[in-house]
Amino acid sequence: MKKIASFLVLLCFTIMIHTVSLAQDKENQDNIYLSISKSELRNGEEFSFTINLANMNVSAFDINIYFDNQLFEYISGPENTNVIDGKVITSWYDETGGKNPKQNCELVKYTLKAKEIGSKLISIQGEFYNAEGELLQAFTDGIEIVQSEDKEIENIELSEESKVPDNNSKLEILRLNHEGMTPVFSPDITQYYFLTETLNKLEVTAIPQNPASEVNITGNTNFKEGLNTISIEVISPDKTTSTQYKILITKTTDLEKANANLETLAIEDVTLEPEFTNNIYEYNATVSNTTQKLNILAIPEKINAHVEITGGENLEFGNNQIYIQVVAENGYTKKQYIVNVYKRNEEEQKQVDEERKINIQKLNAILENEQEEEKQLENQENHTIIKSFEENKEWLITWVILVVIVVIITTYRIKKERTDKNKKSVR
Fold first, then answer.
1. Are residues 126 and 214 in the same domain?
2. What is the pTM of this model?
3. What is the CATH number of the domain that holds 54?
4. Could you report the per-residue pLDDT of 170-196, keeping only the tens digit for each?
5. Is the domain of 203 the same as that of 302?
6. What total number of domains does the chain contain?
7. Pairing outcome for strands 334-343 and 282-287
8. Which of 80, 98, 248, 336 is the most exposed place for a label (fewest CB within 10 A)?
9. Quick one: what percent of the chain has pLDDT higher than 70?
């Protein structure tokens, strides 16, 4: 019995140590993480991936990357890199002996090009050391590159009209490996929202409209309690423009207090397009040339949420933007609604007034025509009745005479019967 008890104690102790070891391995794994510009490629398309460092001081490292050189072509990487037949070797050490370690930074970045279409795998291994030469962490990961399903164009010359300009820095696709991102992606919408209770990281797929654009993704790992931001920067091929997309990640165990939705959004005497829905974050409206200030009604779904409105006063001719920011009860979850308000100038207002006047005249003319048609129809019906009466007048008179005769005879008979009855009762 004592042997069994001792065995159980030893087993529990072993499991506890193993559990702690796994937790430490996971924590260390999160200290070094990958971010990739795109995982779906066309033949000949370039992509980049970055090894990032967080919450750990590194004074030296060795990184080995393996790929099939028939499927990929190495384009660029750090200066201290050697490339030999599908193997990339990068080594670095702190020449100051640990006084200037690497920490919380983009450690290395590599750029490769897909040479053939199909599923491809890149293997990454690394060892990271402290100033004393002690191994801090051994890192192993992989990247799977697949054929683009929605933009595959092979051996086809694009026409000039269909080519994306070199100054284009917009995304074609943006998605996460978990559902819940709002609003629905559109290349012109640059801010998105995501709520999670347990996730520590998200895989981001960001495919640019121009395949030669550079895409940099940061902040998609090591989520802390509160507000986290994933940044996706797209740089055009000619380096003249860039677009910054953001996904605001709220990690919280109290989703109710993270509600930053509006329940109502309305502007007095102004029509919003499209009609307000709490998961649509941008609207359009038009006002007259004399409108100076807008009366905006913005009510949050949760009474303890706070609403801040910027804009809506001293409107200028042309485009004006109103920002309605909702701060949730927890104080850090935020959502922003935008109303693009166009104020007409005097000439535009004059044209609108003339068009409105013409439309009113047309409407009045239509109403008058309808009234006239109804009157004519009523007269026609009356005429038909009169004509029918005249055509059947003789028959009608005959029927009236017959009815009168029948009534007289019936009345006479009833009176006679009553008289006869009275005489009999007197007798």
1. yes
2. 0.51
3. 2.60.40.680
4. 999 999 999 899 998 999 999 999 999
5. no
6. 2
7. parallel
8. 80
9. 85
- At residue 115, what are phi and psi to the nearest 5 degrees? -100, -25
- Report the DSSP pairing between strands 306-310 and 318-327: antiparallel
Q: Which two tokens stand for residue 139?
A: 């890192």
How far is residue 277's CA from residue 274's CA, in Å, rounded to a whole number?
A: 8
Same domain, residue pair 68 and 104: yes
Instruction: Return the bridge partners of 126, or none.
Output: 63, 139
Contact predicate 92/77, CB 8 Å: no
d(C-alpha 107, C-alpha 101), whole Å: 11
On whether residue 4 sits in a domain, the answer given is: no
Look-up: residue for tokens 């953001």?
246
- Asked if residue 163 belongs to a domain, the reply is no
In Å, how far from its chain's centre is CA 1?
64
Beta bridge partners of 363: none
Looking at 253, 284, 314, which one is the last position of a domain?
253
pLDDT lower than 70: segments of the chain: 1-30, 117-120, 147-162, 387-391, 393, 422-427
Asked whether residue 274 falls in the same domain as residue 209, the answer is: no
SS3 308: strand
112 plus 208 within the same structural domain: yes
**What number of residues does the chain have?**
427
Range of the domain at 240: 33-148+168-253
Retrieve residue 316's tokens.
Answer: 């200028």
Would you say the C-alpha torsion 404, 410, 416, 421 has a positive or negative sign? negative
Which DSSP string corresponds to 75-131?
EE--SSEEEETTEEEEEEE-TTSSSS-B-SEEEEEEEEEE-S-S-EEEEEEEEEE-T
Which residue type occupies 354? E
Residues 132 and 272 in one domain: no
Residues 232 and 273 in one domain: no
Residue 202 burial (10 A CB sphere; 0-12, 13-18, 19+): buried
| Residue 231, CA atoms < 13 Å, CB-side half-sphere | 8
Question: Does residue 27 lie in a domain region?
Answer: no
Do 241 and 289 belong together in one domain?
A: no
